Amino acid sequence: MHYQFDWEKYSDIARQAAAEGCVLLKNDNNTLPINKGETVSVFGRIQFDYYYSGTGSGGMVNPPYVVSILDALKASGDITINQELLSVYEAWTKENPFDMGKGWAQEPWCQKEMPLTKELVDKASRQSDIAVVIIGRTAGEDKDNSAEKGSYLLSNEEDKMLELVCGTFSRVVVLLNVGNVIDMEWTVKYNPQAILYVWQGGCEGGNGVCDILTGKSNPSGKLVDTIACNILDYPAIDNFGDSERNYYKEDIYVGYRYFETAAKEKVRYPFGYGLSYTTFEYFSDSYKVIEDTINFNVTVTNTGNVPGKQVIQVYVCPPQGLLGKPVRNLVRFAKTELLKPGESETISFKVLLKELASYDDSGLTNNKSCYVLEEGLYEIYVGFDVRNTSLAGSYTLEKLMVIEELQEALAPTHTFNRLKPSQDINGSYNMTEEEVPIRTINLKERLNYKGSSVDSFTDDKGYKLKDVYEEKVSLPGFLGQLTDHDLVCMSRGEGMCSPKVTPGTAGAFGGITDKLKYFGIPAACCADGPSGIRMDDGSKAFSLPNGTALACSFNVDLIEKLFEMVGMELRKNKVDTILGPGMNIHRCVLNGRNFEYFSEDPYVTGKIAAAELKGMHKYGATGTIKHFACNNQEFKRTEIDSIVSERALREIYLKGFEIAVKEGGAYSVMTSYGAINGIWTAGNFDLLNTVLRSEWKFNGIVMTDWWAKMNDEGGPASSQNTAAMIRAQNDLFMVTANPEANSNQDNAEEELKKGNISRGQLVRNALNICGFVLNSPAMKRFIGEEQNWSELNAYKERESIENIIESGIVKEQLELEVSNIKTEKSSSVIFDIKTPQKGEYSIKFKMKSDAGEVSQMPLSIFINNHIIETITINGTNGKVIEREVNFYAATNINNYIKLYFGESGIEIIEAKVCKNF
Ligand code: BGC
């Protein structure tokens, strides 16, 4: 088999995805599109500093190029840019360069904005037809947004900019190049004519936005989150940001489920909303309930003047019953093809009654721990957003039906009150409260489960994993040859940047010790992250639109196509699984990693994730769905405990993952950093066994987040307690520097000796890991069966001109001059040294960093253009640490040592080259 990887096709699909992810919220008097030949004044420094991604692991892709909005407007040829204004900005940004801060989680949320004068704006308005104002924000891993100016709110300069531009121009378009929804009070204050959320669009982001601005593409994106009038209106806001535990008091009433039920007036833009340059009408017909399925058609017609796409959304309004329910729950969506003016498309929908069920975690219906359909009227609404819908039909259930009997799992042990709607005499709903049911089962009994019964040790019988691949021996038979020590080693991943796999990636697992390799187990490779392949040695990879942007497209076919390309790119780079999609729910608008995640709605989340997985699976690579579950805040993320009801877990926080497993065929999961109801997820038996594996029939691998903590209930959390992880069937601890030597000093072997974990549990987990490896491209590479690849339209890497620092001869040791080197993200420096004798040398570094304890700062060391190693350090709390890499050099030659910094934040105190002989 021969694969051909076409970069141009990749760019085209990504460009379309970036365009379809843009959401047009306002377009008075057809302000957009910009007409051919018009002159545009572009305001805002972000025209030069386009945010193609958020920060942290999900934003550390090294793209070969990034097209900013300004680049794309300039290249479009259809419009003219106001050059005079542009030069003013150019001069100012030269004096006021982009501020990267100190690196990992220490980049400012927004950049200083150029102050405008009335004269400048007046002049620009006389010189042009329309103003485009770009507002930019970043946020990301380890750094939430805050309800402050320059983060969720506009900075003073941005506010002033909008005031002046909107007060002067009669046509103003505001572009929001942001990861999270931001405050939009300014829409009322300054009333710009058009507003477009453009998110962070990856390499092709600017092109996608430009296509929308110039009308090459017609906007078809829809909001995946409700935009409330005020931040205090969001139901989770009071219970976000704690340093120990957050009570999920809003329960299942997240986003539109809350607003549409009890606070409609607090919504500025509803969920699912988004305008087009054309108009659409729709009607539904053929509504029929046949046995357990509701069937109906929706016909959409383009009634305007330009071609466009529309998203039909289907919501259910269930009866309140005893449990109480949101008045709108998204159950289906579909995007039309590009419809020409006058053209129609009919889409058939089938909704299974069981999909309308609610989870009874309290026993109020006498069916505790069951999904039930309570008796009463179920109405099906269709429309183009959650607010503007019409009734397609209804279904009356005479008697309560139990849909699925499950068992209590993950219930809280703290009592608190959660929201529940109650109807007043006018028929509207107010939120009242009820006490959350707490745990009734004995968790200790569940934990007695001992794992695989195939657990005897047979000694080496000469089987290699290839024999399992070729079905000559069973996998349990093969694993019988592994000692307890081998099995414990297999529970450890290696990284970051393991030399056993693709340079600069997050980790390796499987055959990561000599002994495991001897048994023919290859090392599988995983790399960040949701928006492209992160390789910290500086290798280039495609950067995709962020998760929120992709979800706003509501176009699962397009996303699947895009992720076919990702699948190929993974394969080409010898990466078996990408560490994504990130699919936590947008519980709070301030969560720093919302940009990586999809939506406030679990159905959209699950569907988009499933589409990504299906795309990658076509090329044999996969994604690791993360962070399972409730990674809903970055502040104190390794400490925070989410106190949440079982119902909210099942209906909201786990639902998307369930869809990704059942429909997307996910076979790799990453647990989160924090705890759910007192038990850290990486060692949470109920989460991983009772729900994921037993109920959902998941049989892939589960890995921890990097250096995550585990605990025994009631006990402290620590990265060393991998016994808790092994017991819970979280197969892999990610990551350790040296799995064989137990560099993490975990307690697995000690707890095995004490009988607190069993060989059976280790074998069970090894079955999962080897099962993954057997199905992965790693196995094919190992046995020489990997496909051939060729590339079409590959981009040419632009050579960077780096300064070479002449450093002299290494006699015994040579100090490199590091006091003035740049260590900012993506910078590199080259030292020229001479080695008079051949042999092994080492470079000894002393370095430090002020960043947080699980921050990631990679430093790659190349000798003569070959990567030797990527060292990733975490924050050192200001303490100086030492690291060493070895290399071999020939006699009397010039050697070039290149240091490449994948992220800012490292301070090199000293670097010495030493002769090791
Ligand atoms: C992040 C994960 C990421 C991992 C590896 C962690 O800090 O939370 O999402 O995949 O690092 O980089």
TrEMBL record:
Top-level taxon: Bacteria
Pfam families recorded: Fn3-like, Glyco_hydro_3, Glyco_hydro_3_C
GO molecular function terms attached to this record: hydrolase activity
Fibronectin type III-like domain residues: 310-386
Keywords for the protein's UniProt record, in alphabetical order: Carbohydrate metabolism, Glycosidase, Hydrolase
Keyword Hydrolase: yes
Keyword Hydrolase: yes
Sequence similarity: Belongs to the glycosyl hydrolase 3 family.
Name assigned to this protein: Glycoside hydrolase family 3 protein
Organism, as annotated: Clostridium rhizosphaerae
Organism placement in taxonomy: Bacteria, Bacillati, Bacillota, Clostridia, Eubacteriales
